[in-house]
Amino acid sequence: MLDFQSKPNIFEEMSYEEAVKWLLRQVAIHFDGSDHDAHVLATESNAGFATPETVMQARGRWLRDYKLSQKYPNILDIPPGKYATKAGWGANNPGGIEDDSFVEMMVFADHDLRKLIVAFARYSGEIYIKMTHNSDPVEGYNSLGWRRVYTTSVLFEGELRKGQSVNLPDDTFRYQTLRIHYTDGDGDFIEEIKRQRYARITKANLWNESAGMTLIEFELTIEARKITMSNGRALDISSGNVSNPAMSNDVKITKIEGVK
Asked: What's the pLDDT band for 169 if we cut at 50, 70, 90?
């Protein structure tokens, strides 16, 4: 392909015959001779009337441009497309993404005041979205900032009781929190905990037929790919009485999810 930016007068270097042949080749690329469809469709080897960048994005490739934030200081001005870039919008970056971090973005638009931006933190994998809808009220009723899209992976499903351990298919450090599903024989519950070395879950259950309550507590020892349910205990508390019933086998973890 001729480089007209670096050699704007390149035709002057051609002979008459070379210039005509070049023009004929360009016509052949863009026209197929059909009365109903005058131009050739863009393919992986031929852009037709489309630019190479348009063809690349149509085939699912990201447009790499590490200076996107310099070209568009207002992130809402980025034209529709798929970009592999580096964050550079400061306070207007998605939460948790710092300047110069690798980020991939998909920008969709009906028009300039109705846009959807989806941003992916390349290193850690978080997903954020920003939506606008006209200008009155500002951005419609969408939140003015970025919204985080939380995703989960099931790391364990079954039955895990006091004193038992389970090996996980993935490292817990890849997730921000862990969602623990458990039952005490009287109901099913979910607790979300930070990913840390030790975690404690406590639940109170008021008695239905008499004045009193049962407190249940169990601890989790969390390693990279292993979780142990340890130190489980229970207390029955009523007027003038506190007892220590053994933790029943009804108390068990039924599912663990990693939250990103």
From this structure: very high
Closest CA to 93 of 115, 120, 65: 120
Average pLDDT over the chain, rounded to whole?
85
pLDDT of residue 1: 46
Give me the phi and psi of 90, to 5 degrees please. 55, -125
The dihedral sign for the CA sequence 45, 49, 52, 54: negative
DSSP assignment of 70-112, as one string? Answer: HH-SSGGGPPSEEEEEE---GGGSPTT--TT-EEEEEEEEEET
Helix (H, G, I), strand (E, B) or coil at 63: strand
Tokens of 197: 């070395």
Closest C-alpha among 247, 249, 253 to residue 234: 247
pLDDT-wise least confident of 26-40, 64-78, 115-129, 220-234: 26-40
Q: Are strands 63-64 and 81-86 parallel, antiparallel or unpaired?
A: parallel
Burial class (CB in 10 A: 0-12, 13-18, 19+), 160: buried
Q: Tell me the two tokens of residue 94.
A: 């998605």
Quick check: 18 and 25 in contact, CB under 8 A? no
What distance lies between CA 118 and its chain's CA centroid? 8
Report which of 84, 30, 82 is spatially closest to residue 59, judged by C-alpha positions: 82
Q: Which of 55, 100, 64 is nearest to 84 (CA)?
A: 64
Instruction: Please say if the pLDDT value at position 69 is more than 60.
Output: yes
